[in-house]
Amino acid sequence: MYKSLFGALFASLMVLSSSALAEEPILIKFSHVVAEDTPKGKGALLFKKLVEERLPGKVKVEVYPNSSLFGDADEIQALQSGQVQMLAPSLSKFEAYTKQLQVFDLPFLFDDLEAVKRFQKRDKSRELLRSMSKQGIYGLGYWNNGMKELTSSRELRKPEDAKGLAFRIQPSSVLDAQFGLLGAKTVKMPFADAFKALQAGTIQGTEGPWSNIASQKIDTVQPYVIETNHGSLNYMLITNQKFWISIPYQTRTELEAIIEEVTFAVNKEAEAMNQKDRERVIAAGKTKVITLTPEERDAWRQALLPLWKTYEAEIGADVLRAAQTVNRKH
Ligand code: LMR
């Protein structure tokens, strides 16, 4: 009897240890739409590096840049259905899931990236990380890119100069209304398609930070970049809520510590990376960079300010008020 008990014990121990041995690392597929040499691209690679250094054999990260796995049209659904585990879409791409994040699209709301960062540390911003939990989307942090400029086939100095041009925009009704106030047209289109559409002439303008202008070579197909700094391009690092809570507590805590570190690094480097790309574009000399005088820039601001009121109810007056207090002059 002892012998058979021992045999059974031994057999179950063997099963246990072989299943432990066979345990696969948790796989995180991180998909994004930009080049690797951008704030988000570098952030994704740093996340992979730190995870594989600190959680070897436990977690594996695969990064898919440049819309190579999923693009703007399908990446969020891919996260919800578990085909990818991490994304960092721009905050302008969440309108179908929450209206509150539209606050980040309001033109001239934040004076600079530092103001955006201060807002992201406020409670109201932290709460927005949970604003899509009903749709199974879990916000892990805010990553920033940079202030947005306009690129155009025509020299733009005054807001009315944009009249009649068609701009590629992200899927955001605030951005649609922004160009509407200028008398311009808009075409919502995935990031990956903008360059070709400019080449084909189906659009005549875009908006974006220097890192995207440079890495997508927009300066080679647009004769003007206008330094409006009228808004900023920011991301939310997101995961699938069910997936995230399924990760064993200890591992998840370590992942969250890594994310905090990477978030800090991305947000610290983003501005400098954009400045470097600005220099690169100027040095390449393919496009004319127009720097507006303070008076010229103020005319754009005045033209677009009415949007704050238009979107206040959808965004929430409390969120908008919190955002309005982060500029230095307040
Ligand atoms: C865009 O579509 O212009 C941006 O959101 C792309 C990105 O992820 O920076």
Automatic annotation (TrEMBL):
<dbReference type="InterPro" id="IPR038404">
    <property type="entry name" value="TRAP_DctP_sf"/>
</dbReference>
<comment type="similarity">
    <text>Belongs to the bacterial solute-binding protein 7 family.</text>
</comment>
<keyword id="KW-0732">Signal</keyword>
<dbReference type="Pfam" id="PF03480">
    <property type="entry name" value="DctP"/>
</dbReference>
<feature type="signal peptide">
    <location>
        <begin position="1"/>
        <end position="22"/>
    </location>
</feature>
<dbReference type="GO" id="GO:0015740">
    <property type="term" value="P:C4-dicarboxylate transport"/>
</dbReference>
<dbReference type="GO" id="GO:0055085">
    <property type="term" value="P:transmembrane transport"/>
</dbReference>
<keyword id="KW-0813">Transport</keyword>
<protein>
    <submittedName>
        <fullName>C4-dicarboxylate-binding protein</fullName>
    </submittedName>
</protein>
<dbReference type="InterPro" id="IPR004682">
    <property type="entry name" value="TRAP_DctP"/>
</dbReference>
<dbReference type="InterPro" id="IPR018389">
    <property type="entry name" value="DctP_fam"/>
</dbReference>
<dbReference type="GO" id="GO:0030288">
    <property type="term" value="C:outer membrane-bounded periplasmic space"/>
</dbReference>
